[in-house]
Target: Germin-like protein
Amino acid sequence: MIVFLVFASDPDPLQDFCVVVDDSRIRVFVNEKFCKDPNLTTADDFYFTGLNIPRNTSNPIGSVATLITADIYPGLNTLGIAFARIDFAPNGLNPPHTHPRASEILIVLEGTLYAGFVTSNPNNRLITKVLYPGDAFVFPIGLIHFQLNIGNTSAVAFATFSSQNPGRINIANAVVGSTPPLSIDVLTKAFQVDKDVILDLQAQF
Amino acid sequence: MIVFLVFASDPDPLQDFCVVVDDSRIRVFVNEKFCKDPNLTTADDFYFTGLNIPRNTSNPIGSVATLITADIYPGLNTLGIAFARIDFAPNGLNPPHTHPRASEILIVLEGTLYAGFVTSNPNNRLITKVLYPGDAFVFPIGLIHFQLNIGNTSAVAFATFSSQNPGRINIANAVVGSTPPLSIDVLTKAFQVDKDVILDLQAQF
Amino acid sequence: MIVFLVFASDPDPLQDFCVVVDDSRIRVFVNEKFCKDPNLTTADDFYFTGLNIPRNTSNPIGSVATLITADIYPGLNTLGIAFARIDFAPNGLNPPHTHPRASEILIVLEGTLYAGFVTSNPNNRLITKVLYPGDAFVFPIGLIHFQLNIGNTSAVAFATFSSQNPGRINIANAVVGSTPPLSIDVLTKAFQVDKDVILDLQAQF
Amino acid sequence: MIVFLVFASDPDPLQDFCVVVDDSRIRVFVNEKFCKDPNLTTADDFYFTGLNIPRNTSNPIGSVATLITADIYPGLNTLGIAFARIDFAPNGLNPPHTHPRASEILIVLEGTLYAGFVTSNPNNRLITKVLYPGDAFVFPIGLIHFQLNIGNTSAVAFATFSSQNPGRINIANAVVGSTPPLSIDVLTKAFQVDKDVILDLQAQF
Amino acid sequence: MIVFLVFASDPDPLQDFCVVVDDSRIRVFVNEKFCKDPNLTTADDFYFTGLNIPRNTSNPIGSVATLITADIYPGLNTLGIAFARIDFAPNGLNPPHTHPRASEILIVLEGTLYAGFVTSNPNNRLITKVLYPGDAFVFPIGLIHFQLNIGNTSAVAFATFSSQNPGRINIANAVVGSTPPLSIDVLTKAFQVDKDVILDLQAQF
Amino acid sequence: MIVFLVFASDPDPLQDFCVVVDDSRIRVFVNEKFCKDPNLTTADDFYFTGLNIPRNTSNPIGSVATLITADIYPGLNTLGIAFARIDFAPNGLNPPHTHPRASEILIVLEGTLYAGFVTSNPNNRLITKVLYPGDAFVFPIGLIHFQLNIGNTSAVAFATFSSQNPGRINIANAVVGSTPPLSIDVLTKAFQVDKDVILDLQAQF
Model:
């Protein structure tokens, strides 16, 4: 039997809150959500912990973005907001990506980040800033943005989003690391380079 | 002659961004906003600094909430998101209040906070949690909530909101501190107490 | 196994209407809604009666607000609108409260009401008007408002809301009548009064 | 000089309220609206009177619908709600019409109304009910609906809408009374009747 | 056991997409939709074919509008967009109708169409244009509009809509062809004609 | 004096339509829009022509997408919909891009297109289809998508969008062709390739 419910938007709630009830028998089939009886909700439904714990950044890009969305934080459901902790090793990069469903505010807690985003066509302006602890930067919905740790130490930032599930598209993964891969014809023409350059790019993913 | 625009909602933008252009001749009269020519925007339009600076909490409630909305952060305009830094002295209280236009996520950076909110009628359940650094708590849109510093040190938290201008209504200020004051008849009947209690309450504001 | 749907917003419908089908086996557990087969809907699904019947106002505040929302009026489901009948005994009070999810228009049918609302911080202006039969007054979403019957007779008003489930938070019930009660520390600091005053307030609830 | 502002939606406000300021010098050019300085607003901005005054129904259809929208009630601006008083002479008809931007709740105060609406294609079901004082009926957004006074006395109803400007399209006026008129070819084919019937219809408008 | 989901609006999705899974056992009971496991979606879920095939226009009005909505095109679900192919015989008419939930852009591929819409009360202006291949015309949400083939050949147009289920109300069908029919009293008064004219109109449906 | 209006969203209109009035004196300052007096609107405000004219595709990618948005089609303003004509030379590519503010339906008129999109993290699935005349394909909001002409002839498609200004971000232009360019450090780390490959990519833009 298939059972499900997928929230289709980030509207105002129609009740104080709609805490997700997770049911493993169902979760096998789809990523559904439904509301817990409000009288059975507890403080823990609205609570999330561990944002102060450094994440392991020993990976090729030296960065980890930990998104906290309604999928793992039931109290966020229907409230139109989510957040993330981002850890950077020295020279760590949160690579160019977009959030198809949310704008983002980044707040730096530790370290020095070189952050930026690119505006849409036709201008594709790159707008960047070096950020220190206590600095905030805004990434408008859907635009390609990134952060690079340019300090000598690890860096930490919090990000907040205007959706309970902003989504994330890493440009490199999507363009040269998709499953199956984009055809050579598409990529050589898109980037106006010859086949070898594209093969070099795809070889990494 | 004065002409101006007030954004009436937190929808998706219709452009990459709409940086507020401030015009003091107009601003004197209304809190209007309009868009800067996208080609003239700079990184500073999307940048805010000083969130790491402790605020002065020497006031009767021992707490200060510094809201960063599109009014003072032009890059947030039309993006449906805003944030705040909240400082607490020992025993400091961010008193019971509502945000009429946003849900809130609170993230504790320093100290120990006793946080809670009250559900709507008919149950008016009080849902509370003690929060430590790295803990987050959600306050659904429109519900009365508060945080009390129950630690021996000062405390600091960040809050994020699902609106570029969440608004804030301090219950005590609105109910017993309005200008002009609410009539004694309304308050004695609302709280079911005699006149002296209400006069005691109003005397403080 | 129980599965159900809770409407999360007041959007435009995606069909002519979505009449709630009530299923007592489920309703025991949650306030779910789902759509009746449009071809099985009848005029009674869109019909509500009894708004002309005076309600019993013999209670401490001398007032009763009867909210008619999609919970009890299935035809309202997904239409983003609801209404209420409010009865007042002489000196009856509809106490200070907010609707977290709707603006309200009040229309007086009988009697004389002293009505008002308080704007948000920092000004907390009290805006009031004496209303007679045929007068209307607007209460913007999320703001604290009230009505007091200042005539010698009973009074009746209709209210309409911009949500199918506006919600209601009585300030007195939420602040000094919650379950469990708000801590004395929070209330004494919020209202800047000593413990005795708060105990007087809480004693009534 | 050109000045303008047109509110494009019924979203949540981004401020407590945005009272329309009317400026006849501007109104000549466009039907613009803009916000009054919140500190200059008065109770009268949120107040409307005269809903208890019977309207003159001596017209061919024996009915008058008095819409109270943000255009004439500045306090409604950005709040997503409006209302109307509808007067009926005996046998008076509020003729088949749609509201392109709102759902409606009708509440009968006096008299007996035969009310109904027609569902959309393909079924075009007619759903009707006889309404007495204290009865309410819902008309979903965009559907054709009407009310006929079938009692021996005049009738009065209040209607509320889920938009600050629901709009109104009288079917007869739009189809056979437009300026200029719809072509005979369109109407004869649409109604599958010969030219004489259409000319009879158009002759009345 | 019945399980279901009815999408209540055209908001932004909360996931990349939500492909409708159809289940005939359920469809008997409600017009539900639910999401296919994203990992099981295929290209065919996002694919629709046959728009180049002329439809049979041998019917009284000489026109066929083929609406492609989320009901028959699962990939459109939650994306807020739909489209149609409209075929016209010579002199064929797409009769006056409204879409209660969407604005429309019409693009002519073949033939010559006389297209128009009527503005709402009080002006009811008729705005028309003769359209040739490559021409587009816009019909704002909820307004009555039509297209008549005034060329000597058949005509074809594509229409796109700002909703995944715009709905359609043919004015003639709804006003004189509903089930059951609108009462003679309502129609004679609405159109200000005598009974015979109305009977002529109803006789065709 | 500066006067302006920026539409912040794609909501339902608050009037039948809001035709853009363009005023070059103002346009110098901001990309504003405002409404033409409804009584002065003409059919031409809602009309666009020339979609049947092939565009010149003699450019490096062999493709041209002609977006028709409210900026150049005033009647679309506030209606939440826009469209495009896309011309392809043999082997022409509409390169990988996103629309940050709209979902898209593509309808093929001539030729054979290989079309696809990539889902968001973590799976980054590539979903593709070969499309012939009369075929439609959906690209969900914010996802990277493309079309390649794999036929021996030129190809033509129409696209429609769920926003009056969907925006467009060409991935190649934004990632390796921005002004100023993204730093080598960011790109080498993002694509996990050495500097020479990135320089090859940037050399083309």
User: Anything to note?
Assistant: Chain D has one domain: 46-203. The domain at 46-203 of chain D is CATH 2.60.120.10 (Jelly Rolls). The CA atoms of residues 83 and 182 of chain D lie 31 Å apart.
